[in-house]
């Protein structure tokens, strides 16, 4: 993922209000994937849930956040846990795991409390195949 494209996305979307199924951690990260690749890994989930309970049900039925994201990004992005730019699944104190965006080697998470920089190492990171 081109650093300038990721920075522009962060700038353009940082202030978007949290809304489950529209602008939550997973949809926010998936929207960057769509912007970069033209493929939306969460198209079938957009608008399908409107609260944390429904989101958790989808995540649990998929086997957890890491499995859910891995299966959706497979074939679109390449897993590279050392990538300085990309999509990540990171630990989260309230939810267990949260999707985010890695920028300049730091995990940025969109939460209901706003955009935060995660200090923990992500569980996994995916980058564009071309770097």
Give descriptors for this structure.
33% helix, 6 strands, 131 residues, 4 helices, alpha+beta
Strand content: 15-25%
Radius of gyration: 13 Å
3D shape: globular
* SSE pattern, N- to C-terminal: HHHHEEEEEE
Head-to-tail CA distance between termini: 6 Å
Helix content: 25-40%
Q: Which structural class should the secondary elements be placed in? A: alpha+beta
Let me know the largest β-sheet. Answer: 6 strands, antiparallel
Low-confidence runs of at least 5 consecutive residues: none
Order of strands across the biggest sheet? Answer: 1-6-2-3-4-5
SSE layout and pairing:
Blueprint lengths: L2 H11 L11 H13 L14 H10 L3 H9 L4 E2 L6 E7 L3 E8 L2 E6 L2 E5 L5 E4 L4
Antiparallel strand pairs: 1-6, 2-3, 2-6, 3-4, 4-5
Summarize the structure.
The chain is of the alpha+beta class and 131 residues long. The protein has helices at 3-13, 25-37, 52-61, 65-73, and strands spanning 78-79, 86-92, 96-103, 106-111, 114-118, 124-127.
Task: Please give a structural write-up.
The protein is globular and about 35 Å long. Helix content is 33%, strand content 24%. Strands 1-6-2-3-4-5 form a six-stranded antiparallel β-sheet. The chain contains four helices and six strands, in the order ααααββββββ. The chain has helices at residues 3-13, 25-37, 52-61, 65-73; strands at 78-79, 86-92, 96-103, 106-111, 114-118, 124-127. It starts with a helix and ends with a strand.
